[in-house]
Design a protein that fits this description.
By secondary structure, the chain is mostly helical. It folds into 2 domains: 61 residues, Helicase, Ruva Protein, domain 3 (Orthogonal Bundle), CATH 1.10.8; 42 residues, 30s ribosomal protein s13, domain 2, CATH 4.10.910.10. 45% of the residues lie in helices and 3% in strands. It contains 6 helices and 2 strands. A two-stranded antiparallel ribbon has the order 1-2. A hairpin with a 2-residue loop joins strand 1 and strand 2. Helix 4 packs across helix 5. The radius of gyration is 23 Å and the shape is elongated. The mean pLDDT is 90.
């Protein structure tokens, strides 16, 4: 089984790409992990031996925050921002972009689907 930290890794991918399926590990971190445990990054995951899986599993569990631990830390950081009421916390509460993007025309991803507002009818004089 090619399973590390509760995540099934794709067997037909190279090691450097396969490790990126774990939340919190990108390409650069994956490359660093494989260099530290002396595994060639171009070998496919199906060709790894059990010792190599164990080396990677041990290295990740000791040195890197991943999966549930990382997700909970991120949630706690966002909650702290909301509690202290700073600018970024307020933007998180309102579901608006928080890094200076404009909101008049864009940011549909953050604001959600468009909500049309009906115009008020003008009163005509007779």
């Amino acid at each position: 089984m090619s399973r590390i930290l509760g995540v099934y890794l794709p067997k037909n991918k190279r090691g450097i790409i396969g490790l990126t399926y774990i939340y919190g590990i990108g390409k650069k971190t994956s490359k660093n992990i494989l260099n530290k445990v002396n595994i060639n990054e171009n070998i496919k995951i199906k060709d790894w031996k059990d010792e190599e899986f164990n080396k990677i599993r041990n290295f990740i569990s000791k040195n890197i925050k991943v999966e549930g631990e990382l997700r909970s830390e991120i949630k706690m950081n966002i909650k702290r921002l909301k509690d202290i009421g700073c600018y970024r916390g307020i933007r998180h509460k309102l579901n608006l972009p928080l890094r200076g993007q404009r909101t008049k025309n864009n940011c549909r991803t953050r604001k959600g689907k468009k909500k049309t507002v009906a115009n008020k009818k003008k009163v005509t004089k007779k």
